[in-house]
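Notes from the pairing session

We agreed to fold both candidates in a single pass and log them together. This is the raw record for the first candidate, unedited. Please don't reformat it; downstream parsing expects exactly this layout.

Candidate A
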Amino acid sequence: MSSLDSSPVSSSGSPDISSRSERASPESKHEQPVTSSEQINKKKARINYTNEQIQTLLKLFHENPYPESEMMENIAKDFGVPENKIKVRLFYHRCCLKHFI
């Protein structure tokens, strides 16, 4: 038996490629592991809202739990935060409110 005969062959008669891919591990690529200090640097900073900002958000929520996009844009500009942070904050507030009802 030659060395070619010992390689796995699929039913179609072609060599089985899956056995080759099993031998190639992700570690064989030249990827370096991410260290914990690099992970810390990539972590986004948490936004700390002032009491006044929280009161404004609560007032907005009580007036309309589903404010229009334009209103959220204006509040985000006033607060100096991205609009998606306001959307997420209101979303979580709606979720929490549902659990208490």
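Candidate B (folded immediately after A)
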Amino acid sequence: MRISWEGKVVKLKIEEAEYLYKRFMGFIEFFPHDIDRILRNNLSLGTWVVYPRGKSWDELRSVGLVPSSWAMVSVCNNGSIFKLRVGKAPLSCHIYSKSSRMMDRIFPCLRIPALSDVFHPFGFYFMYGVHGEGRRSDKLVPALCQFVHNMATECKDCKVIIMEVGVATQ
């Protein structure tokens, strides 16, 4: 899946991610006080931020300033500890799954959505800490989702991406 929006994706250092989470999400009722341990967990793949091209993220590293529009997400690969599978699915689901994958392989230019093989044990990515700021964040968050999707396609065990969502009000 191509990232069509003209944004720049950057992987954050753990300290930068921790700073941003505490600064912009620390007021949320269920914010984990041990966010540093969560971000340092072996299952964590990292935290990424996206911002409009032409802007700079260097100001965060030097003086703590962020661009006017940006979004971030952290990703965890839970496939090494959890294996899921869909059991007792009707035959029609199995047929659709196989045929959609076959059509996608034969005609990739049609971009037919293919249903992953979820009938055998598989792993998954967990997206958490999704946050966006600014006028363009409505385009930046989907760009991050596409970025994580592209990462997941490189992982042979990952068949599903699960996303934590919530509404934060200040």
